[in-house]
Amino acid sequence: MKKNNYTIEAKLSEYIRNECLPKNKEYKLEYDKNLFDDGIIDSAGLITFITYIENEFNIVIPDEDLLPEYFTSLSVIAGYIRAHQKTGKNITTKIANG
Amino acid sequence: MAEIKKCIVWDLDNTLWDGVCLEGKVKIKKGVHDIIAEMDRRGILHSIASRGDEELSLKILKENKLTDFFLVPQINWLPKSQSILKISKELELSLDAIAFIDDDEFEREQISYMLDDVLTIDAGRINEISDWKEFNPVNISKETKERRYFYQAEMKRKETRHSYKSREDFLLSCNLQLNIRQLLEEDIPRVLELMSRTHQLNSTGIIINGDELTNHLNNGQGKSEILVAELTDKFGWYGVIGTAMIVKEKPVWKLKYLSISCRVMGRGIERAFLAYLVKYAFNDGFEIIEAEFRDTGRNRMMRVLYQMAGLINNNKPDIYGNSVYSADTNNLPQTPKWIKML
Question: What residues of chain A lie within 8 A of the CB of B338, using their CB?
């Protein structure tokens, strides 16, 4: 289980490093860093990132789930992916349905 | 398919010039220089996807004073479809905004097969294209004529950003300054252009004509307001890059339309513009701050902007079927710290 948890964050981090960050190996990307507040990602970048997540983790992310509570940092996004993989449903729908 | 093309990708041998440069002397085709300059004036960019010797080809372009017109030229031995994909990525243009001119039917067919959104044109028709609707944008603003320079400045930005330790450091170093102000008459061509060219960061896809904008200016602001956003950074002036239309009927302040040029993506400008608008409404004493959104099939990015900035979907579409988002006045969108509001 621990290995699996590590893999999701590491994969997301690798994507952000390759696609969104300067090619500087010294830069430390914390898993709880706010990707928007630090200029790492914006609306356009998130769309591309979502496509990557959907393909990589074989899930579908509906528009109504694109909210700050699920997509601000790598650790939060990883949490969303895990919950999604378990339920197979989007989180908002799950909450709305009680 | 995009109606107006944003970039013409040229083959060189027997297309841009008569002859094959590796086989002897070549001469720029009659009328081509004028067409390139005219398209440039219309804001249509030029690039190259050609097989051949890069150094020699660039030398010929320089001798004919054409080098500066071409952005990210691809002169190599790769399939031209790969070159066009690279151009599309570098210039951040969708394939349906690209036209490709080549004398060789095989090459044109190959592009049509591999990249069917690209418009392919036989080099024998070069002298006709100035009249085609695909190359005739309705509105030509001062920003249109400067478009190539904007892209060249953007190349410089991309070259420098890798030298910074973090993305935030780079953005802070850019000295981004956003000036949001009321629409002026001189902005009208640019606003019309933004409405027709901007698809992704466009909240409702509505198109207003020039007469309606002039009418708005002549008959006072009343309940409606049209704002424009102008951007500058240390690399140069971008011109007007965004437009917002607001209708105010107390207690409701409604953002009817918001568009931001795709050219300034990646800087947090859209967040800054939205943050400014919501704060502007809040400071003006409005209790209900709303933004309309209509799914046009291409503007998911705007929905993402609204939602990630903390706007909440009411889940009650209006009578026109538009989604309505509300701002939470206890959690207003924030301006990124690297953008200075003028």
Answer: 39
